[in-house]
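Course assignment 3, question 2. Fill in each field.
Student: A.L.
Task: Predict the tertiary structure for the chain below.
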Amino acid sequence: MEKKALRILVAEDDFIISQDIRKILEGIGHQVVAEAATGREAVDLTVEHGPDLVFMDIRMPEMDGLAAADLIQEKRPTPVIVLTAYDDDELALRAARSGASAFLVKPAREREIRRVIVIALARHGDLMECRRLNQELAQALREIKILRGILPICSFCKNIRNATGY
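Answer field:
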């Protein structure tokens, strides 16, 4: 099975780490379409470039990575892999709540990056499918409410009345 090269945005305020991540991503066949040094820039570049995936540091100037991930999910839902130097369960939970698809502790190695990309894409795909199904269910509920207003239903037995009122 041939893998599709992904278009990736790297949001990391440490230039050396950013370049290490870029080197690994390009080495495994992906394209880095943009790099951001602040959370705000990450949001703007995600909207502008429409990458397939975002690697996002948590601690960044202007806006932290969790707030940026949350805003990205509002403006242009995209899988976000959160990068951090802190291996903390509470932080991982906060990342998931902010819309991050996966969590990766720095320094990241190639094998970990490959694995977390697969997880992030799958999780984001599941999330998008849930959103689509929720929209369908909401539409069906609206249609049922309209039908209830049209159909003459007996308030006592809850059956539909016929033309004679029975």
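Instructor remarks: The helical segments are 15-27, 39-49, 65-75, 89-97, 110-150. The chain has one domain: 7-126.
Grade: pending
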